[in-house]
Amino acid sequence: MSRYLFFVLFVLSWLLVLVAGNVQAQEQKSRYVTLVYTEMKDVQEFNSNLQLNRTLESAIHQKNVITAADEVLAKVDIIIEKVQVVLDMFPNNYHIQLVLLPDSSGVALIYKQKYGKNVNHIAYYSLSEKTIYISVADTRLRVLAHEVGHSVVDYYFQQVRPPYNIHELMAQFAEQHVTD
Ligand SMILES: [Zn+2]
After folding, report:
1. What is the distance in A from the centroid of ligand 1 to the CA of 165?
2. Paired sense of beta strands 123-126 and 26-29, if any
3. Domains of the chain
4. 172 CA from centroid of ligand 1 (Å)
5. pLDDT, tens digit, for every residue of 74-124?
């Protein structure tokens, strides 16, 4: 084998490793949210863990739902609308990213990369990125409603951000009353 051919094969095999390792993120948009995920199984698990109550569920049937991702987006839009009603805050140009991660270690990894701190959050909302990161394994209606609460408060108070404790209180209020 010539040295040149060996070199070409070596480069090609490395490219293959890189391509295989680079799992491409998928995106799908609705009115209020851009859903970001790498694997369809995460969308399915998120969908089955995100159980709505009867009132919220009935709103789904008025929407055009075909795939699991469609259903997730329809549910999340309904939860966002409900949280806005609960908080009585209807900010203009509200649109967030929702990033699905397989479990809390996925959330911890992202948090560590961005802030250099170790946490064991199952979800968090990034004010600077307008993004909710959530563990699909731990997803529940109330968990999502809490983070959506943070995002709605963030969009509503454009000029002066409420103090941390008040921000948190409003997110907890959204979490408690989303099922009303
Ligand atoms: Zn919070």
Report:
1. 9
2. unpaired
3. 24-177 (3.40.30)
4. 7
5. 999 999 999 999 999 999 999 999 999 999 999 999 999 999 999 999 999
Evaluated on CA atoms 135, 137, 143, 145, the torsion sign reads: positive
Q: Which residues of 83-103 are buried (b: 16+ CB within 10 A; e: fewer)?
A: bbebbebeeeebebbbbbbbe
Q: Which residue carries 């969308």 as its tokens?
A: 43
Strands (E), 38-178: 96-101, 123-126, 131-135
The tokens describing 21, both together, are 């390792």
CA nearest neighbour of 156 among 76, 94, 63, 86: 94
36 and 26 Cβ atoms separated by less than 8 Å:
yes
Pairing of strands 123-126, 131-135: antiparallel
CA–centroid distance, residue 59 to ligand 1 (Å): 26
